[in-house]
Records
---
Amino acid sequence: MSKNKHTNPAYISHVHLKGYKSIIDTEVELHPGLNIIIGPNGSGKTNFCEFTHRLFNFKYPLIPNKFNSKVKINYNDKEFVWAIAVKHLDRESSQFAKTIEEYFFEKGAQDSKSIEYQFLDLTELTGRRNKAKTFLIKHFQPSIFIWFSSPSTQSRYNETTSLEGHINIKINKKSLELEGVILFPLHFVSNFIFRNFLDLQNKDILESADILIRKLEIDKDAIRNLRKFSPIKDIRIGKGLTVSENSLTYDIDYIRFEFLVDGFWISWNQLSDGTKRMFYIITQISAYDRGLTIIEEPEIGVHPNQHRKLLTFLKEQAEEKQIIITTHAPRTLDILKNDELNRIILTRYDKDKGTKMRHLSEEEIKQAIEYKEEEGSASELWTYTGFFDEEEVI
Amino acid sequence: MRIGIISENYEHDSKALKALLQKHTFKKEVIFIPICKTIEGDNLLTTKSARKINIDCKKYNINLVVLVKDLDGLPSDKKKIEGISSKIQKIAKNTNHMIIPFIVIFEQEALILADIQAFNTVYQTNHTFSGNPKFQSEPKELLKKYTSNSKRKYKESDTPEIFQKLDFDKVYKSHKDENSFQSFIKALKKAL
């Protein structure tokens, strides 16, 4: 990464968070590209990831006088601030709104007395395809996916499903928006499969169902990345898909995906858990040109050789996007070159101060480089020499 | 003859070079095998690599080893070239196998510039490169720039696919003189 000029025009350069689970008052500098958080269980890595993600998606729960956040975003070497602080939350507000999103939706940002804020139009900074500001890929592949309505309305359906079954989708003829349900992960349909379709401006193109079927294209970048970095070598839409239309909508029924692994086409439920997770990570990241992706422990359920490939993928993608990963695998840190060791962030939990985060000191980096020179890898240094012991961290 | 390839990145660099070398007909029958998967980046030129080379050479029945290292600099950076050469020699002393070094001026992407048509085929672009690839600083950034407006963007992991399409003779003729693809091929042929 060091020898590449990062082309990401916007990245989070500094985070200062207060008031979320183990985070009492924590701040940390972040680099463009790849940042790796490592620390003991219970040190607050997950809380940091959740907090940062919720912040940009307005999902933070409203807890009066506690929540305070300030994030600096670097764009073309200029600094912008994204800040939200809950001040004096009145009883009425706390009754109707459970999250910042709900509060703003009801009250409107302009009338806010309880919440101080300073927002940016992140879409302008991060590009059109970056409708969601951050992505959080949690520890495991979700077994149940939540069905969402059209991305613009944000309201939810109670139905759940998984990729194991087939998918039915309706597309509004006039607005060209997906109507009814979209499968989670949201990107999978809205950007991964239907990207080309939704980009169509000329509504006349959609004259017939046949044309619509031809537009059902699986994203080529995602396929290429899966082929290079995972056991999945191709994806196709299985037979049985039907398209019909009425006066208002196109109805696409029985969309079922098949995956080429070891020369055989298999269904989603035949993929191993590790392969599902790699699919999830690779397609999620491939779907966006820019933005922040936070991934918790990408090594979970993944064979060491596949883990190495996955890290190669993440490092390559981090040339254009900011990626934060948490890890318990010292092997992950070996992906960093000597001049990238400042991308390691150590976390620890202090019973009085909560979660604390810091980078390696210059002396520690020097020590790690010397160790690498001698041993060919610093994995043993991270694992066995007390490098991350709590007493020595802060 | 079985030739092992070791580089800073097994997935990109080793596989890409294998794709290019396979296009050439050597006097002897040769098989190129990327080895030492776990070696990455700065770990390549450490003395521990010698041990890993020995293990993999035994495992894959390797007769000689090609060690590829990006210079991350131009030919004028003699001090850097000497530094890398001396580290490679140190590794060679600790292995049971002959090592043919290939110090790539700047980085492997410089080889692509010798046959930009192959690149254009992959990315459906129409670029020309008339300069001397040996003196192109940061060729990877240049290739990224070439595809900045294309549907498919250049990625380092695409190099095996591009190298498969490169014209071996064009690369051989463009990268000549000291520390070049040409001098590396000559040394390899001599060692066969």
---
Amino acid sequence: MRDVAVIASAQRQERSIDNESEVEFMVPLMQQVKESVGLTQQDIGFTCSGSSDFIAGQAFSFVMTIDGTGPVPPISESHVEMDGAWALYEAWVKLQMGEVDTALIYGYSKSSPGSLRDVLATQMDPYYVAPLWPDAFAIEALAARQMLEAGKVDHQRLAEIASRARTHAATNPHAVRRTEKSVEDIMGEAPMADPLRPSDISAAADGGCVVILAAGDRARELSDRPAWIRGIDHRTDAHTLGVRDLTQSMSARIAGEKAGVGDDKVDFAELYAPFTTSEYVLTEALGLGDDVVINPSGGALGAHTMMASGLIRIAEAAERISRGDGDRAVAHAGSGPVLQQNLVCVLEGE
Amino acid sequence: MGSTGSKERAAVIGVGQTKYSSTRGDVSMAGLVREAAYRALEMAGRSWDDIDAVVIGKAPDFFEGVMMPEIYLAEALGCVGKPILRVHTAGSVGGSTALVATSLVQAGIHGTVLTLGFEKQSESNAMWALSLPSPFTTSINAGAGGYFSPIIRRYMEVTQAPELIGAMVALKDRQHALRNPYAHVQDPDLTFDKVVESPMLWDPIRFSETCPSSDGACALVLTNEAGGDAHDGPVAWVHGTAMRSEANNYGGRNVVSPQASEDCAADVFAQAGITNPRKEIDAVEMYVPFSWYEPMWLESLGFAEKGEGWKMVESGATHMDGGDLPVNCSGGVLSSNPIGASGMIRFAEAALQVMGEAGEHQVDGARRSFGHAYGGGAQYYAMWVVGADKP
Amino acid sequence: MGYNQDPSVPPAALSGAVSIPDALADLEPVRSVTTPLRMEYTATPGASLSKYLRAMKEKRIIGDVCPDTGMVFVPPRGVSPVSGKRTTETVDVADEGYIESFNITRIPIKGRDDLHPPYVSAWVVPDGSNTGSIALVAGDDLDLDDVRIGMRVKAVWKPDDELEESAANILHWEPTGEPDAEVPDMMRIGRPTDGGAQ
């Protein structure tokens, strides 16, 4: 495989961005990232983005946002109706072909105009499940209940995950839930989607993330310490909840193995865990031990921007690698009910 | 560890389509995609176990009212434990989806990939999906026809093309469709006069010059060089692939022949070593949702000089019977239009031509063919060149 | 194996008969289910469009200026696609302009009782703008056969007491009767920057 690295990123997340359209808040991020490595859009070999029409409430919503790249003259470009992490995957594939050396990736959404947990119900099987409108919290609560009853986790453990995420998020200027909270206080919260408490559930945000990938010497030229992608893979589980063991993740385990998570020591991990229960399942599936710092950014529990949160995990991990905060990190993205789909990316310093 | 990367050859070894019709009420979405997927697997002589990854594309999720339907379709597409990617690039999506799948093979990530585009418009209300109210702008466009009609008018005025060129294309594509049992529109009684007399919808576009709205799916099985070499059956080798996008509204934009279209064509032909597309391409499958787009694309893509595209149409050059550059032998988008699959059908039909598998609509001895898709405000492009010989 | 030339022949894997338990044999099969979908969104126009809507209330049309090229975009979207930069400056453009090209819709549109076919939707480029957008061209004595590329038109506004922060303040555009505008380049839509914004 060709050596490809994350060389720059930028993100913005807020509880709600009311006074700017998607393209209006994405343009400064795109510009900032390109300028930080001295590239213009015309220097970039491939551009790929991730967004969702259902979240935007508008068909072909991505068509408005492409203007932000400055696609005049035309650019080589693609779009996935997935989290930006999969757009990064598509760009990484493109770079593997050796015809281009750089790629710009972005993912974004404003979920605040709608009711995200209800919008996500339209992801379910349209014939058997969606007519019941099970919202996203309720579906995760089914999984949480199974985990608790199987004795895999207890409330204490979930509250510890939530409390630690909040402590980390308090240090992250991009997080939107930045107040620390003790395990005891979290355990005292009234359940929201029983057995899940408010602190078990991610903090929805509007925003986006932009990343630049570069290959080989081009990456070394543009960055002092590129965060090299040593492995990247993604997998899906079955959709039908009844055929899955919701207390574990087969797809995350396979993706983790293929990406080589276990090949060497992991310093820290940025996991797309929209619920404390998802974090538990992911650390098990990826075999991350107690010595691994989980979600130093606070993760999705600190700020959850749909369609960008997975890409933000990669950006956060890469930035820490580039800063020298660690040498080897795992970044993860997920999608679908009870994280049906999972992407794992292993990043390393030089 | 190659430091510069390398590109594998890729080949199509399986094509599967469903019979296109306005309503496939006999199958669910899962049933529809499986029908195309199984046909492609069957032709390729492969099973689900041989498929390393699936790349799926479709137009806006609002068309079926299911958010990211690939999530629900994971089992139907044999993806459990495998990677699935979902592409959406407006109307060009069927083409770009096939290209993303091709790139997985070309990059050496996977050996064999299944790619599929679908639309089941009958399950929702496409007019509703396309006109979700935006409170900030006024919309008086009546669908895509209202958007493209002024551009067509512009082409007509620039080239001074005779008014009935569009009707010729419409009749030709429906005549071609009669030779393709999968085509939606099957009207053996259609005549030139009937096309001309059909109601004017978006003046200058007549009813018979527009595409239908269809349910349907199209799938391809793509494999790498070793897979293509070892394959005991017809193979279409990928000679070139390209995608381009541009903004849809800026001062001085050429809307008749957008720069992205010209750049994309130049790129894909250069990769295939083609300097004279009209001579070197044996069959063309281009995305023509409104008949006038055939002469427009002929010029934009380099098959005709500027201003000469309509003359090719008028001379019969693009007709299967006697034409030197048969265009849309399958009947094209004018005869079948499951939007999310429409681009992939172009790519698939191009492959069938060089595989010699196009049946009644086969161009004799086709060695190299061209597949094309576009979308948005004529701003997203995906193209490929496939050949009977290994590049 | 070759390509399946007969769509009525199902793929082998799907050709097996579907077996139905005896207990269900007499039941009428369910052919379809209808799931009503209702989602509510509180949309916001963004910074640039909201400026535009506020200007509309004052019977003014404003556009964005590209910081690099000076190109003027109407309606403003807050970004210049030619530079990929956020726009900060807006300018007033005229409520008169010309038709770049047009469509005549001759069929009724479902759910749009306000539009009476045949009607003209045209790319109208206001004077001072480099881009056009689609607008209704109408008028009591408008002769459809007379509508043409290059025709000069002006905005017809709602009565002053009905003005809102809305693009619908312009009821339609009507011919001015002036001599036709020269269309800069028939292949291209909108004035290129060097063609001057006037």
